[in-house]
Amino acid sequence: MQNPRLASRYAKSLIDIAQEQNNLDATLNDVKLLDAISKESRDFTNMLRSPIIKADKKQDILNAVMGNRLSPLTNAFIKLLVTKGRETNLPEIANAFIQQYKELKNIKTVKLTTATPMSDNVKNAILDKITLSLANSAVELKEAIDPSLIGGFVLEMDDKLFDASIRRDLNDVKSQFMKNIYVSDIR
Fold first, then answer.
1. With left for phi above 0 and alpha for psi between -120 and 50, is residue 22 left, alpha or beta?
2. How far apart are CA 74 and CA 30, in angstroms?
3. pTM for the structure as a whole
4. What's the Cα-to-Cα distance from 12 to each of 6, 9, 53, 96, 187, rounded to whole Å?
5. Three-class DSSP category at 144
6. Tens digits of per-residue pLDDT, 136-187?
7. Of the candidates 150, 45, 21, 160, which has an alpha carbon nearest to the alpha carbon of residue 95?
8. 80-115 core/surface letters (b: 16 or more CB in 10 A; e: else)
């Protein structure tokens, strides 16, 4: 069961402690690892959410999966979650931590969708334009490929969408033909 308020509070606490210990970047890497494992392995997430598996067994499984790849701070945090019975929220907490880290460091995530893979020159040119428009912000570029765009690109950032695709142009032309502005609507 998702609980965004709880996830946000635990993530904020972990960020605060990591900042106090000057361990924020290492903690971010640990949380990204946990997030990746949660997204890749449905069995791992189901194990965390299972009411049948006891807390000590979950802790043993987490220790076996993570080994010594996590920092002591992250290990202690996970142990706290398991002790408090909040391990079911670990994927949401990891996601909230990453979002709060990006807000703290003023990192904007931009999703660029194209019909075919882009060359590095085109990608860098677009990234430079975005960086210029976002003063004092770092930009994280996520790429996606959608052949239905036919050509051009779609750029998404925060709640803004810039659609410069051929699919949109063709849809605009289609709607203009469907609504012929040269024929009056007589009723």
1. left
2. 7
3. 0.82
4. 10, 5, 28, 8, 62
5. strand
6. 889 999 999 999 999 999 999 989 999 999 999 999 988 888 887 666 666 5
7. 45
8. ebbeeebbbbbbbbbbbbbeebeeeeeebebebbbb
What's the token pair of residue 158?
Answer: 């925060």
User: What are the DSSP calls for 107-121, one per residue?
Assistant: EEEEEEEESSPPPHH
Give strand pairing partners of 163: 154
Question: Which strands sit side by side in the sheet containing 107-114, from one edge to the other?
Answer: 138-145, 107-114, 152-157, 160-165
The beta-strand segments (E) located in 29-151 are 107-114, 138-145
Q: Say how far apart CA 120 and CA 112 lie, in whole Å.
A: 13
- What tokens were used for 48? 């965390």
Structure tokens at 93: 């907490």
Alpha-carbon gap, residue 55 to 71, rounded angstroms: 21
Q: Taking a C-beta distance cutoff of 8 angstroms, is the pair 10, 93 a contact?
A: yes
